[in-house]
Structure formats: C-alpha cells, structure tokens
Task: inverse folding
C-alpha cells in the first residue's frame, strides 16, 4: 500500500487523518449516494456523451458508432473525408481497445505511435470491440468513432508522451478534490497511477499543484523531463470544476469522478465519468477525503446551481 498510508500505524490513526478507505467508500458513500440503476449512464460512453451534450458539457464530438458486426464495413463511410479520429469501445476501461488514428488516407490508418494499420486490421479491431473483447464483463459492445482531442501543450513538460488529464471528485455536486495524472516513461505513456504515472494533487480553489506522488513516493520533479511539478497551474480551472459539477445534474450520482482533458482549441472537455473513482487521489493531495465529504454534508448549502456550487467552493477553499 502507499507509504503515506503506511506512516499511520493503525486504522484508528488512518481514520483520524480523514483517509477514506475502500470499505467506507463502498458502503458509506457509493452505495448510499450512487443508485445502481444510474451506473449504465457512465459505463456506456455513448450514453454519457448524449447526456453531457444535453446539459452543455463539452465532449469530443461523436463521428459515428457501429453496433453490429454487419455494420463494421461502414467504417470507411463514417470516416470519409477525415484524417484523424479515435475508435474505442463504448464500455471499455483503462484505455483498453482505444485506437488513436492521427493520419488516415487511402485506407491506411496511422496510429498515435506511428504504427500503420490496414483496413483489414482496423475492421478486425472493430469486430473485436463489438464482440466485447475490451468491455466490462465481456458483454457485446458498441464501437465509437469520435473526434481526436488536440491536447493543449500546457502539460507538455510535465508528462512523457501519453495524455495527461484532470480528475475531479464531485460529492453531492460540489467539487471536493482534484488531481492531474501525468504519464511517465515508466507508465508507458498511460495516465494510470498504478502503472507508474504521477499524480499531482491540485488546490481545488486554484488548480495549482499541492503535492506530487509517483509509485507511493512523494515527488516534485518529473523524472523524465526534469520539470518542476510544483509549478503546475491548470488553466481554465473554473471551467474544469463546472464540468465536474454539471456531471452531478447530468447523472444524479452523489459521488463521482470526472476525467477532463484540455483541448488546445476547444478548452476543457469531459472524456469520461466514473461512479467508483479510486482513492489514490488522497495520496496525491496528501489529505484524506473523509473530512472534506463531512464538511460538505454538514456545512454546504443545498439548492444551488452547478455554477453557484463551483463559486461557493472557489470562495470557501480560497479563504
Ligand atoms: N477523443 C480522443 N482523443 C484523443 N485521445 C483519446 C480520445 N479518447 C480517448 N483517448 C485516449 O485514450 C485514453 C482512454 O480513453 P477513455 O475515453 O478515458 O477510456 P477508458 O475508459 O478506457 O479510460 C485517454 O486517456 C486518452 O489518452
Ligand atoms: Mg479513462
């Protein structure tokens, strides 16, 4: 487990530090505030996208979708006239089955890492997606074809290849905690903390770096680039938080994680939502979630709009 957690000798001390453990998260928070019937809204990226667009949350545009094997050949019509796009499973997770195409021409698909795929290979990939190879529980799935995000180079010095994102934990509609996840050489360009990516906790009122962690160890310099992680300040911070807050209206989930990426031209965009966000964000912030959730329970007002909730948090935590 994490060194920061290890420094607490017993469960009593962990609780005193306000660390939310797996059991409490599951029973006191998730089962209480996240109705199971709402899960499909976030476990299916087509549904998530449709709902997001209804409440005015920016997401990468949907170019098309393929639901049945006999439609897989339609891919060439769907992408006609485009040179870049992403093909991914609607019910995937952990980046599995995501095909980022940076250059398409004459039935040749060039991936982000420079690999050239033929039409047959892409057809097979789509067929695999539909058969559920990458999906939760191996169920039949849908292949989504969506617009490529052009990631802002704000994070360029802080991550090694891959795509950094911002995760905001939202409780009862209030942004409660945030971090940015930065891919490293060791994480193979993936933004997953357990694969060796860096997590940097962000001050919820400013979007500025608080505390960095990589493989359970505190860190303040990006090991591959040498950049000072403590200089991170995420631009359009209020917009990031508004996406998170609106995700509550959008789904009705009392506890959720919103994954947000920064497009160079279109600003912050929601990539996906999670009804069971992990707890490592506490490590990246160097503080526990429990007290913060309790504070929201006990002292935050109800009946506010998403924007009002964000402004409340911005003012409250800035004090
Ligand atoms: N539209 C897109 N443009 C560019 N990269 C994308 C896009 N969609 C997904 N990716 C890349 O794939 C990763 C995983 O995609 P995501 O939608 O979060 O699915 P998962 O549920 O598998 O995590 C992202 O972190 C990003 O690196
Ligand atoms: Mg993801």
Result:
């Amino acid at each position: 487990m994490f060194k920061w957690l290890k420094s607490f000798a017993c469960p009593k001390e962990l609780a005193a530090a306000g660390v939310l453990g797996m059991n409490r998260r599951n029973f006191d928070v998730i089962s209480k505030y996240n109705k199971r019937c709402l899960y499909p809204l976030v476990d299916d990226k087509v549904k998530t996208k449709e709902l997001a667009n209804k409440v005015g949350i920016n997401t990468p545009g949907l170019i098309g979708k393929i639901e049945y094997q006999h439609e897989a050949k339609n891919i060439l019509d769907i992408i006609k006239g485009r040179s870049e796009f992403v093909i991914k499973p609607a019910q995937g997770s952990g980046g599995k089955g995501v095909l980022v195409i940076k250059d398409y021409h004459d039935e040749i698909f060039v991936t982000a890492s420079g690999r050239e795929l033929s039409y047959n290979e892409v057809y097979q990939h789509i067929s695999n997606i539909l058969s559920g190879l990458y999906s939760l529980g191996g169920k039949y799935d849908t292949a989504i074809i969506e617009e490529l995000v052009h990631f802002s180079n704000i994070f360029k010095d802080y991550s090694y290849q891959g795509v950094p994102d911002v995760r905001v934990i939202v409780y009862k509609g209030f942004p409660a905690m945030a971090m940015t996840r930065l891919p490293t050489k060791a994480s193979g360009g993936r933004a997953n903390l357990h694969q060796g990516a860096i997590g940097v906790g962000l001050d919820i009122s400013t979007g500025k770096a608080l505390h960095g962690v990589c493989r359970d160890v505190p860190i303040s310099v990006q090991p591959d680039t040498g950049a000072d992680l403590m200089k991170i300040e995420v631009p359009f911070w209020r917009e990031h938080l508004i996406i998170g807050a609106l995700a509550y209206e959008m789904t009705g989930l009392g506890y959720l994680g919103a994954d947000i990426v920064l497009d160079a031209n279109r600003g912050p965009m929601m990539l996906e939502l999670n009804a069971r966000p992990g707890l490592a964000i506490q490590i990246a912030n160097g503080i526990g979630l429990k007290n913060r959730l309790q504070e929201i329970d006990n002292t935050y007002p109800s009946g506010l709009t998403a924007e009002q909730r964000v402004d409340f948090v911005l003012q409250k935590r800035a004090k």
User: Anything to note?
Assistant: The pocket of adenosine-5'-diphosphate (ligand 1) is lined by residues 60, 86, 88, 92-96, 98, 100, 146, 148-149, 163, 165, 191, 259, 271-272 (CB under 6 Å). The first strand starts at residue 62 and ends at 66.
